[in-house]
Amino acid sequence: MSTLQSFLIVSALLFGIGLTGVLTRRNAILVLLGIEFMLNAANLNFIAFWRFGPNPEALTGVMFALFAIAVAAAEAAVGLALVIAIYRHARTANLDAVEELKG
Amino acid sequence: MNTALLIFATITLAGAAAAMTLRNLIHCALAGAVAFLGLAGLFLGLGAEFVAFGQVLVYVGAVAILIVIAVLLTRPARVAGESPRVEPWLPGVGIGVLVTGALVAMVKASLVARSPEAVSSPAAPVKAIGERLMTTYVLPLEVLGLLLTAALIGAVLLALRDPGEARRP
């Protein structure tokens, strides 16, 4: 098994942990944390492919990872502000308790 | 993968698993910070120093603290004896395991398995990254600055107290 492959498997496992957390946790903050794990797994893929792929001097993977980190920071700030706004309105951060828009 | 990278990978996966399974929300947030730190170690081992330090600054420094503060602000949500999971939790776990299995199987079966080991160890010096950011990627950089400003203003507006809302006792 090549080194790139082992990094890809670590990334797949991290993605799976994040996805399982997003699908099973009740608290909205931990759902956001799971989304951050999935974004980080993608970043690990970018860096691994940059390191072991052709043309590493183009720095494409590094640039993509840097921009992804910045966008994820913006997403976390807005997401947590939304959680706090929902908490103030519904007095809970549990996702199954916030069901006013449920059809 | 050498021993150091193996240790960092274990720290990352264990931290992420703990963050997604522990009951206490503060413990979850801190385990998440440990996972982000392990990931920064992996980036460092792969030769992407700038990304690793950015990861420490943004994730361990900012996002983890933000999550802890959000947990503190929504504290009474945790009632003793309440389940931390959604009630039929088995389908979620099943989907997660299925997706992970599919991803791992695809990685194992892909052409990547037969690719030769990289002989060169590429570096990403900060000077080269800065030059790229100021030339090739200058437009995305400016758009990103705009996005971060908009996100900052939006987050403040969202979390701002409504003027009509009664003050909490």
Question: What is this structure, in a nutshell?
Answer:
Chain A is mainly alpha-helical. Helices cover 76% and strands 0% of the residues of chain A. Chain A has helices spanning 3-24, 28-52, 60-90.
Total E-strand runs of chain A: 0
The end-to-end distance of chain A, rounded to whole angstroms, is 49 Å
Which CATH architecture of the largest domain in chain B is right? Up-down Bundle
Count of all domains of chain A: 1
Over the alpha carbons, how many angstroms does the gyration radius of chain A reach? 17 Å
Q: What distance separates the N and C termini of chain B?
A: 57 Å
Describe the sheet with the most strands of chain A.
Answer: none
CATH level-3 fold name of the largest domain in chain B: Four Helix Bundle (Hemerythrin (Met), subunit A)
Give me the strand/helix succession of chain A. HHH
**Care to count the β-strands of chain B?**
0
Here the CATH topology of chain A equals Helix Hairpins
Percentage of residues in strands of chain B: under 5%
What is the CATH class of chain A?
Mainly Alpha
Could you give the order of the helices and strands of chain B?
HHHHHH
Biggest chain pair interface = A-B, 73 and 82 residues
Low-confidence stretches of chain A: none
